[in-house]
Amino acid sequence: MRRRLLCPVLAATVAVVAFARADSLNVRFVGGCLTAGYAHNVALSESLAYVAASDSGLRVVDVSDPQAPFEIGHFSVGEEALDIQVKETLAYLTDVGGLHILNVSDPREPHEVGACDLPDPACGIFVSGNYAFVADASDGLRVVDVADPTQPHEIGHYNTRIEAWGIFVTGDLAWLSNAVLGLRVIDVSDPLTPHEVGFFDTRGWSWNSQVANGHAYMADNRGLSIINVTDPARPFETGYCYTTEARDVAILGSYACIADGVAGLRIIDVSDVGNPREVGFHDVPGYVEGVVTQGENIYAVAGGAGLGIYRFLGAGIGARANLGTRHSATQPTLLRGGLLLIGVDGANASGVLLDISGRRVMELQAGANDVRHLAPGVYFVRSGPSAASGERSAVCKVIIAK
After folding, report:
1. 43 and 14 within one domain
2. Smaller CB count within 10 Å for the chain: N or C?
3. What letter does residue 23 receive in the DSSP assignment?
């Protein structure tokens, strides 16, 4: 099995991190539950996870003990279930035929109370107030009145021409992830006549987004696009972080959790919206399409693998040395395969690797440095002076093991 041993050490201006081809970085698997069907998406409500599981419909998983989640109920809709949202005792499940509203007051026995046919596969849903906003593939945005859950009915739509895959709503605005047309901003203040007020054409195919703090965080097929939407009529990109195949995004504090298809779960630091960077990941069996967060846990679903619960361990704790002093880490980093040099507080990461006698054995650059050719033993990383901070060089100990 591929492995990575990790122990982050920060010395003044750099972080030194062990790396190798591995299945995780800064992310721990907590527990999982294999579900029937191909898991497309997941919603959380208190201690329950609701999984839209393709032809197996809705699967309800008890996650009160994240280390031992287990399925307690299910409901078959007869079509391919694609997305799910839960509000109190109602679950709003979309499939290739439309919208189903389920009563989940007893999660062990969900039952349908109402349904609304829609013209195209209902790929995404967001429920706000008395309305369900549905990303309905090539038929764009559909607005369904769900004030009476037993009689849901469509009242408005906006044709975006290209497949609408994801939807997020804040106030009177719907943020539609519209495939090759990027992010479309739709005014839904009058749900009978939604209309577009702005757009941003992302770099890849737009799958899904989450909007927070004046920014839209867009999973756009090949990475995370951070889009300033303080003026909805004129969105613009502030930062981008490439990943393999971004399909969904969920915000966890100052981090974006990415469901990244075959590349698993990726964690992006978005504290600096102009310079997002990957700080963690975990391989996931199957194809990861959906991700949500609750508390400190990350819930990701993958086709063929069901529900996985993960926890981000953090990217390390910064330690700034006093001006004009040297700093040495008291605990060494254990390395197998290589080390990752990461700048802290905007500093440029660079340095040298010294052996125990102080002899320079290798120049280090920002990012990944392969140390597999070196003999096992104790070494020291000395970072170069930081022009940005005025600090002198810093030293931390590393142990290279085979």
Report:
1. no
2. N
3. S
